[in-house]
Design brief:
Radius of gyration: 11 Å
Low-confidence stretches: none
Number of strands: 2
Largest sheet: 2 strands, antiparallel
Distance between the termini: 14 Å
């Protein structure tokens, strides 16, 4: 699943490690999300979106998921 996490982090000038600590996951999880190798759980998606003061839809791109 595509995300805007990398762009949002760059705008705020925070590292993957800082974001990971803020939302309670490892840096590797953030890396996997940014590389589209991992899909966030609903809870994690909510935490990330809330951290950036965005909606889940503003951070995560659901257009490639069929049958929504």
């Amino acid at each position: 699943m595509k995300t805007k996490i990398h762009e949002l982090r760059r705008e705020r000038r925070i590292s993957q490690e800082e974001l990971a600590a803020a939302v309670g996951v490892t840096r590797q999880t953030i890396t996997s999300l940014e590389c589209e190798k991992y899909t966030a759980s609903l809870v994690l998606a909510y935490k990330i979106a809330k951290y950036f003061d965005k909606t889940i839809e503003e951070v995560f791109d659901f257009s490639d998921i069929e049958n929504l």
